[in-house]
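To illustrate the input format used throughout this study, we show a single complete record. The first block contains the structure-token representation of the backbone; no residue identities are included at this stage. The design step must infer an amino acid for every position from geometry alone.
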């Protein structure tokens, strides 16, 4: 069966020392249950945070990766470099990357394939902006992000990908999608995956919800049959809030 996952996305927060402290606290508090807990830290934190992780259910991830494997790409960080720190996951296509850095479907497709080839698990993000939801285009937008970003993968490779639905209007705004809105979209995503790759792959795909998920709403969101966990931004910066979300399962 598919994994339950709670992944923290620290974004551009925490100095190295603060990040290591946070990771140590989370590591202390994480229990070895069937919930996979992931810390997605800034690149420069990865190697140090990796050393702080001792629990079997706690994993490390990056927030982005380069779209090339190596060479003269000043400032970029490759999938092999990420993997060499001990990280096992990488967020791809977060809405902040899509909007501020103009990362399009073709580029995200390339990054996903590089991540898979390096043995990293992509956490592939999708989600509509407010205007798209208000005009009723949200389903179409998410469908095309997934189709264009992922649907040329083999079933075997697709089976290694974690999906994250993050309505952009809910990210960092304090306004989360309702449990019904989340379930409706997650079910639509699973149906889409099922049409393309079959029910077995669809049933095994973890689909995370992201966008103002916090201890007070996590239980309701995670109780939906098609919501398999969360990608947590702001609330992952406090061990108490983050662990409150983990224990919502
Ligand atoms: P948020 O961010 O939890 O702060 O809304 C979620 C995300 O961007 O992954």
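Output of the design step:
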């Amino acid at each position: 069966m598919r994994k339950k996952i709670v992944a923290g996305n620290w974004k551009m927060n925490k100095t190295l020392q603060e990040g290591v402290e946070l990771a140590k606290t989370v590591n202390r508090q994480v229990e070895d249950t069937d919930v996979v807990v992931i810390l997605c830290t800034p690149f420069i934190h990865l190697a140090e945070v990796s050393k702080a992780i001792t629990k079997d259910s706690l994993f490390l991830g990056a927030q982005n990766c380069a779209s090339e494997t190596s060479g003269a790409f000043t400032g970029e960080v490759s999938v092999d470099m990420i993997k060499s720190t001990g990280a096992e996951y990488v967020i791809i296509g977060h809405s902040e990357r899509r909007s501020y850095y103009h990362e399009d479907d073709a580029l995200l497709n390339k990054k996903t394939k590089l991540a898979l080839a390096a043995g990293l698990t992509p956490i592939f993000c999708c989600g509509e902006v407010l205007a798209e939801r208000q005009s009723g285009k949200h389903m179409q937008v998410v469908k095309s992000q997934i189709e264009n970003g992922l649907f040329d993968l083999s079933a075997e490779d697709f089976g290694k990908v974690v999906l994250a639905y993050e309505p952009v209007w809910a990210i960092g705004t304090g306004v989360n999608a309702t449990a019904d809105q989340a379930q409706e979209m997650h079910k639509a995503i699973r149906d889409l995956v099922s049409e393309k790759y079959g029910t077995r792959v669809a049933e095994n795909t973890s689909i995370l919800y992201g966008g103002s998920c916090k201890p007070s709403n996590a239980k309701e969101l995670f109780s939906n049959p098609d919501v398999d966990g969360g990608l947590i931004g702001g609330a992952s910066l406090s061990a108490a809030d983050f662990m409150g979300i983990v224990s919502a399962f």
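Structural context for interpreting the output: The pocket of 2-phosphoglycolic acid is lined by residues 9, 166, 171-172, 210-213, 231-235 (CB under 6 Å). Strands lie at 4-9, 35-40, 58-62, 89-92, 121-126, 162-165, 207-210, 229-232.
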